[in-house]
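We close this part of the discussion by returning to an individual protein. The amino acid sequence and the C-alpha cells for this protein are reproduced below:
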Amino acid sequence: PLGPAEGRAAVLLQPFVHQVGGHTSMLTYDEHTICKPLVSQELSFYESLPLAMRQFTPQYKGIVSVHLKKDSLGNPTLIASPSLGQPDSCGRLASAGGDPAASLWHKCKWSHTQVTRSFKESCPGKMLLRTDLQYHTDSLLEDANGKQPERKSYNPWGLHCHRQHLNRMSSKHNENKLHQFLLLENVVSKYSYPCILDLKMGTRQHGDDASEEKKARHIKKCEQSTSASLGVRVCGMQVYQADTGHFLCKDKYYGRKLSAEGFRQTLRQFLCNGNQLRVDLLEPIVLRLKALLAVIRRQSSYRFYSSSLLIIYDGQEHKESADLHLPFPKMHGTNPSRVDVRMIDFAHTTFKGSKSNPNPTPHDGPDHGYIFGLENLIKILQSLSEGK
C-alpha cells in the first residue's frame, strides 16, 4: 500500500459538527465533503445507485485512506491520505501541516469537559447522562474568556461519536494501519445555520446478517418506540433558535422515548425557530417527501434497514441576501433550495445484485416498512400545516 500522502497533501480530519444522529463518527474532509469508515455494503449501494434516487442521497465522491496519528500533545488524530489514483474531485486539499492540537476537535473537547464539569457541580452526585447533553449545548457557545463567538454552537453528538471512534481505533490498531473511508457530499454545506432532523425509517432496523442477539435488541427498540406504530422515529435533531442564537439539540435516546403525540410535537419543534412556526417550510418539505415516496415505491428488492432520512433547512432566513447565495442548485420550481430531504446510512441496505452480498435474502417488491414511515411522516406534516 502507498505510504501516507504520497505526492498529495494529507488532510487532517475534523469531527463533523453537524452530526445529529448515528453512532459512526462522521468527519469533515473539506468544506463540501465528509467521510466515514467504509462498509462494503454501503459502498455497493452507492456504486449501483438507481438514477432516480440520486437526488435523494449524498453524492458519492470516492474512497480515501486514513491513518491514526498522535499529535505533539499525544492526542490521537485522523489523517486522510488521498491515493495517487483518486481524482481530486474536491479541489485543492487542505494541508495537515502544523500542530493539529488547535483543531476544532481539541477546542470542543475542552469545552465539552467544561460542560460536564459545570453540570456535575450544579447537580452534585448525578452523573452526566448521555441524554443530558441536549440541555447543555449552550455552554459550548462561550470561549475561554466567556465571549460568544459570532456564530455556531456545536452539537455534542458528533463529538461523542468521534471520541468513541478514536478510542476504539487507538486500542485496536497501530498508527501505521491504513483504514478505508468513504467520501460523501456534505449535504448541509450550503446552509448558514443548518437545522437537521435525523429520522430512522422503517418498521425494522436489523439487517439480514444480524445475529439473533442483535436482531432481538433491534426488534425491542422498534416495539418500544414510534418505529413500530409509525414506521419512523427521531434519531437526532438540531434546530437553530433565532431568539437566543443557539442550537437546540436532541439525541436518539430522547427520540426513543417519544409517543406518537410526542413525535408529532417534536416535528413541530423542529419547525419552530424560537419565535414562530416556519409554516412556509411545510409545503416544500411535503412535496419533497412525496417525490421520494414515488421513487421508493418503484425500487423493487431494496430494503433500507437502519437507514436514516435527513430533513434540512436553514435556521436563519437571509431575505435581502438570498440572491447572493447563488450559485447553489435551485431545485425545481416546487422546491426552493431552502429545504432538502436526503437518505443516508446504507450499511445494512440490501438489494438484488449487490456486489458485497451477491446472494441477499430475496425481498420482493418495494420496502413497505419504509413506505409506511414516509406516509405517516407526510400525514403528520400535513396536519401541522392545517393547524390541527
User: Anything to note?
Assistant: The first helix runs from residue 40 to 47. Confidence is low (pLDDT under 50) at residues 1-7, 84-152, 320-335. Residues 8-85+157-189 form one domain.
